[in-house]
Specification:
The chain is mostly beta strands. It has two domains: 114 residues, no CATH class; 253 residues, Porin (Beta Barrel), CATH 2.40.160. The protein is built from two helices and 24 strands. The radius of gyration is 34 Å and the shape is elongated.
């Protein structure tokens, strides 16, 4: 009994078994910011960026920031990693379209403070062609209308010489176009399902399954002319020739209550650039070559040589103004005689269009489209050849239109 009492007294004096020491993480450094500049500076998109904790605040409770430091000026630009609400407080939405960042250890952050670095509020970086506002929300301001998926609609009245106007007409159009540069001296262009449907009076349907064409810049001019009137002067003449290929085009049109259906099985043209932009996306060119066509209405095949002058130009650096134009002539050869139309009939088409981006919905541009067209043809049975004129006015929505390859950074803009 005495032994038990003595053991209890010893335990009460020692305080029992010693508890293991508690381990706690080093607290995040709390950074004092310098007064904000106006306008706020922006992080550089291609510069080194760190992610770290600068300590919580009423505006940024998480304390998480993106950091970019300049060793020469001993200045660090800091941006909350989440978007801000309208009242300037942190939201739970991460910044979109940012560059990757590396975690900055707290020890290195404290060393920056020791070395006298100042920390200033800023705006996060944005990729070329994109802009970020002071809340961190990103938006696209540069669009490439040479690369897109589009869906459009327009009012398309028609005037035929000597006939009443056809005002109850509408147009729907759809297509996919993509450009792939092959180095700096060739642009490959792919167009898929280029489709147009005219509804109402004098209806028509025109669809091309696949089209491929190229623009080429030669490395060395093939012809050099030197003049010797006064100081010798040299003129270089380039022949920037490319290719144009079209596969499976279907054209259906109703005139005089009769449906006319034409299948162009394949077309192959050579192209000659009269002018092209430095990036080969915009161009003015000539093209010409043969096509093989099947006239389903009259069950005849024909070989059709054709020639065209055409242009596709973006007028401004951000892609808001887009112009297209063209004139094309075709003549049917090796065709069978068909009653009701001349032998070896002809077609002539002209067009000019202007497209202006009005606004963007979820960073996809909505455009105003204005276009004029003219057509004269003698290949329709029992139809007198007359000029047809159409004026199209409507909207076009691009479901995918990335920034142009030459798009600037928002800070540079």
């Amino acid at each position: 009994m005495m032994t038990a009492v003595l053991l209890a007294l010893l335990l009460s004096q020692s305080g029992g078994p010693e508890a293991p020491p508690e381990t706690t993480a080093a607290p995040a450094s709390t950074v004092t910011f310098a007064p904000a500049q106006s306008p706020l500076p922006s992080l550089i998109y291609r510069g080194a960026i760190w992610c770290t904790s600068l300590g919580p605040s009423p505006q940024v409770p998480s304390g998480r920031y993106r950091l970019q430091c300049n060793t020469s000026t001993r200045r660090c630009l800091a941006v909350p990693q989440n978007e801000l609400e309208a009242d300037g407080t942190e939201s739970d939405r991460l910044l979109e379209r940012t560059a990757s960042c590396r975690e900055l250890p707290q020890e290195e952050l404290r060393q920056l403070q020791t070395d006298g670095y100042t920390f200033e509020p800023a705006i996060a970086e944005a990729p070329p062609g994109w802009y970020r506002d002071e809340r961190g929300r990103v938006m696209q301001f540069n669009f490439d209308l040479h690369r897109r998926v589009w869906l459009g609609g327009a009012w398309a009245p028609l005037w035929r010489t000597g006939e009443p106007r056809a005002l109850n007409r509408g147009r729907l159009d759809f297509g996919i176009i993509a450009e792939v540069p092959d180095g700096e001296r060739m642009m490959r262009r792919f167009t898929v399902l280029d489709t147009e449907l005219i509804l109402g009076e004098q209806s028509s349907f025109d669809a091309t399954l696949f089209r491929y064409d190229t623009n080429v810049r030669q490395d060395k001019p093939p012809i050099r002319v030197t003049t010797f009137l006064g100081k010798p002067r040299r003129g270089d003449f380039n022949f920037d020739m490319g290719a144009w290929l079209e596969v499976l085009r279907l054209e259906m049109l109703r005139r005089g209550g009769v449906d006319h259906i034409f299948y162009t099985l394949i077309s192959g043209h050579l192209t000659l650039d009269l002018w092209h932009s430095r990036d080969l996306a915009s161009y003015v060119r000539l093209r010409g070559g043969p096509s093989l066509e099947y006239d389903r209405t009259n069950s005849t095949f024909a070989l059709i040589p054709g020639a065209a002058a055409e242009g596709n130009i973006t007028l401004d650096s951000n892609g808001f103004h887009h112009v297209t134009f063209g004139a094309e002539v075709e003549k049917l050869l090796l065709d069978m005689r068909v009653e009701g139309r001349p032998h070896h009939p002809e077609r002539l088409r002209v067009r000019a269009g202007y497209e202006l981006i009005l606004l963007a919905i979820n960073d996809q541009p909505l455009s105003l489209v204005l276009e004029g067209r003219g057509q004269w043809r003698t290949d329709l049975v029992d139809e007198r050849p007359v000029w047809e004129w159409s004026a199209n006015t409507g909207l076009r929505f691009s479901l995918w239109a990335p920034a142009r390859r030459s798009a600037p950074l928002a800070a540079a803009r």
